[in-house]
Amino acid sequence: EVQKLNQQLEEKNAEIQQMINQPPYEKEREILRLQKTLAEKEKAQATSDVLCRSLTDETHQLQRKLASTAEMCQHLAKCLEEKQRKEKGNSDDQIPTERSNQVFLQLQCLLDNETSLQALICNLQEENRMLKQKVAHV
């Protein structure tokens, strides 16, 4: 591993020495090329930032929607339980109904979607970090 790193270091040193020995116009051309590459990476970084902000906003919206949906489901479940108690006249019978199961499955689906969005945001943030490292390296 050390030999490999030493070899890479020697290659980079040779590359730097070659650049130093280049005529001024070639150095300028190389500088322009590097500036263009940097500008492209900065543009990609800006795009990535915008996408991350957009996904974050969407995540917050979905979280608010999920919270309100959960509240509504709880309210509906309570109403359903009360209605069933009134209809049967027996408060000891609390067997979950098919409708309660459907509400539960819908809530589970919403939670899964939120988890997927969180994973996507994490992936974009990691990509963002990698791009920043590459720009810093250039």
TrEMBL record:
Top-rank taxon, per record: Eukaryota
Gene name of this polypeptide: Tnip2
UniProt-annotated stretches for the region Disordered: 1-25
Name of this protein: TNIP2 protein
Native organism: Donacobius atricapilla
Cellular component aspect of the GO annotation: cytoplasm
GO biological process: cellular response to lipopolysaccharide; positive regulation of canonical NF-kappaB signal transduction; regulation of transcription by RNA polymerase II; toll-like receptor 2 signaling pathway; toll-like receptor 3 signaling pathway
UniProt biased composition (Basic and acidic residues): 1-14
Keywords linked to the UniProt accession: Coiled coil
